[in-house]
Amino acid sequence: MDAALLETSLALVDTPDDGLTTRLYAILFDRYPAVRPMFSEDMGRQAKMLRSAIVAVVDHLDDPIWLTETLGSLGARHASWGVVAPMYDAVTECMVAAMAELGGDAWTAQMTDAWVEALDAVSGLMLLGYPSDAELAS
Question: Per the database entry, which stretches of residues form a coiled coil (predicted)?
Answer without folding.
Answer: none
